[in-house]
Specification:
It comes from Actinoplanes oblitus. With 129 residues, the protein is α/β, with parallel strands linked by helices. The protein has a single domain, classed as CobE/GbiG C-terminal domain (Nucleotidyltransferase, domain 5, 2-Layer Sandwich). 38% of the residues lie in helices and 25% in strands. The chain is built from 6 helices and 5 strands, in the order βαβααβαααββ. It has a 5-stranded mixed sheet with strand order 3-2-1-5-4, with helices on both faces. β4 and β5 form a beta hairpin. α1 packs across α3.
Length: 129
Amino acid sequence: MIAVGIGARAGTGVAELATAVAAALAEAGLEVLDGTVLATLDRRAAEPGVRELSRVLGWRLVAFGAGELAGQAVPGPSRVVAAVVGTPSVAEAAALLAAGTAAELVLPKRVRGGVTVAIARGGPRAEPG
């Protein structure tokens, strides 16, 4: 399973999100068909751009609360992100949680055009919540 975690400001459009995800996949040597899950913070999952990206890619959208994301160890925590959304990581933590059992980062967080993307590989996971 390949899970792509994303973090972005409210109101970020599908074009910006898609560009960042495509760049991250290319850097990791992956293609859109390799992905299965788009994961993010619960309040970002309600955003039109994120929902549209999930639909266009044909990936399942998985959302996590800030508390759940904050409980996931990540290599690149951010105090700034923690102050803004209540968790030191969105993209890396969401990718790892969504990838499930024995998840590992294939690509640590990358920022492109204000969108943060991380990619994890792992096994199946039960639905959150």
